[in-house]
Design goal:
By secondary structure, this protein is an alpha+beta fold. About 15% of the residues lie in helices and about 30% in strands. It has a single domain, classed as Jelly Rolls, CATH 2.60.120. The longest helix has 16 residues. Pfam families: 3keto-disac_hyd.
Length: about 240
């Protein structure tokens, strides 16, 4: 019973997000403390990991943060896009759309350090994927909504490729909960015995920085495929 209230609240958020204009906040969201991380027009508030500005391959296209792979082929640099600010306890809501055969991810708790060199070396990930046509879709714990390579979704909830999905990540004092399109997919507490077991059975077992930073940046992954993000909003807890 303890999960009913937050699940309903986040489901209502998902429903309201699908009904309202992208990249906007309703009066109820503003009152509840939600803030936009993407204004729908610029890349303000973001930069490429270990850089001071967003790389040229990240563009704003039709009101979405778009990773333009054609631009990369023509020499524009890519890389994971990260928030300028760091966050510890929060609810993050974000809409995503993936290209056919595409792969990306929402990575959080990212520590920015040249010694690490990549967002995923410190940050856990909510998977974003074309589950049907990308090779990763055949692997357990690698599907959309999964806690990537650690825990499989409790229920599959992704929409067909090309459609907008709404993901919510709630992180409070280490307790981590994922929703995808209003369906709870992950519930685990970071640092718990369950977490340690999941970690020991993942590719991150020997990665010393992985999941070690309670406060960190939020990243949108460049995995070499076209992807779009919009309506990126956060409420600090």
């Amino acid at each position: 019973m303890k999960h009913i209230i937050p699940v309903l609240a986040l489901s209502l958020l998902t429903l309201s997000a699908s009904a309202q204009t992208p990249n906007t906040l309703s009066k109820k969201e503003k009152k509840a403390g939600w803030k936009l991380l993407f204004d729908g027009k610029t890349t303000q508030g973001w930069h490429t990991y270990l850089k001071t500005e967003p790389s040229a391959a990240w563009k704003v296209q039709d009101g979405a943060l778009s990773l333009d792979q054609d631009a990369k082929k023509n020499g524009a640099p890519g890389g994971d896009l990260v928030t300028n600010d760091e966050y510890e306890n929060y609810e993050l809501s974000i809409e995503w759309k993936i290209s056919e055969g595409g792969n990306s991810g929402i990575i959080f708790g990212v520590h920015e350090d040249p010694k690490l060199g990549a967002t995923y070396l410190s940050g856990p990930e909510m998977q974003v994927l074309d589950d049907q046509k990308h090779p990763d879709g055949k692997f357990t714990k690698h599907n959309s909504g999964d806690l990537y390579d650690m825990k499989k979704s409790e229920k599959y909830a992704a929409k067909p490729v090309g459609e907008w999905n709404t993901a919510v990540i709630r992180k409070k004092d280490g307790k981590l909960t994922f929703w995808l399109n209003g369906v709870q997919t992950i519930d685990v507490t970071m640092g718990s015995d369950e977490w340690k077991t999941l970690l020991d059975n993942s590719k991150f077992k020997t990665w010393k920085a992985f999941g070690q930073y309670p406060k960190g940046h939020i990243a949108l992954q460049d995995h070499g495929d076209q992807v779009w993000y919009r309506s990126v909003k956060i409420r600090q807890l």
